[in-house]
Amino acid sequence: MGNRRQKVLVLYLSNSALDSKVLAWSIYDGTGKEAHTTGDSDTPPYATGLDALKAGWRVIQFPQLIPPYPGDEYSTSFYKHEFIFEQLEAVDG
Amino acid sequence: MVDRKYLLNSKQMASFVTEGYLRFDSLIPDTINQEAMREFEAGMRGAPYGTPLGQVYPEASAVNRLLAMPEVEGIIQSLVGPNPLFDHHAIHVRQANEAAAQHLHGDAVIDTRTHFDIQLMYFPHAIPLEMGGTLLVPGTHFRRINESEIGRYQNMRGQIPMVCEAGTLLALHHGIWHCGRQNTTGRVRYMFKIRLNPTVRQLKLWNTDDLGDPEVERILATRYSWFEDASGRLEIMNRSRLWRFLTGDPEYDTDYWLTRVENMPEMLLEEAT
Question: How many domains does chain A have?
Fold first, then answer.
């Protein structure tokens, strides 16, 4: 990537549609300019996944839709609708 | 057995079932808080897993005096019965200027029981926002995850950073998602946590005089802003299941979610008419 570094944005949406509401979020900054950690923000960076696209993020993962395992239909676990985005940002040196 | 007036009421129990925790601000008096700080800084001995709680701490110790407060006994007795077992304890420290928070996690391992342990979190000194008080995500205790598998979730709508006065106590369901936050102050943050196991069936252990209060049902129907559209409905179902377990009422339901999918009539038409 030369002098570019990857920034990763992970958005957990309210359903499988990219334009649904952001419920949870994480940011990892490969440029080292920002350092994010658990509980550092109460406000999502974007209202929806589509808003992240409009802001210039490239989506690199759409979550697969996987039906529940038989017998496990009513149990809950991880977020289902995890969308991953990236930006490539130039760095010095 | 503690006097009945110190037991939780049904609205508090419904809040515990819904949120996965109860909060008691400034419950512990300063005399105990100050002594507890000295004991925590000096280090504390625990006991083997499964020791009856009453045998764990020296009688004059701050933690024993805290646990012997009738208000605290009432909380414990309402949730896990009068003679719980000591699982383990820990003094959790967030060092001064500790930049990184813990990853979000649930304690111990994935746990499929309806029966539950509780964890008491005790904050012996005041915790301002910037000091790294525990972050809780209300209502996450039904989610089946194994410890730090959820570490990539940095922020969730509805998360609550603990900001409190000295002597505040939390009573947590064992499954709730939480973590210690970054501490940007120059002071060390202390939190004492103790896990307790029930020894009796968790059935109407609290003061049930207000069990029929409509507020109970309203509390049990609470939705959280971190809920996904679809699985948020499953959260309500799982909550109703726990309420059935605790009350012994096999037909309790919120908004018909369980009843609808349990309706599988076997009566033949000829018998029904």
Answer: 1
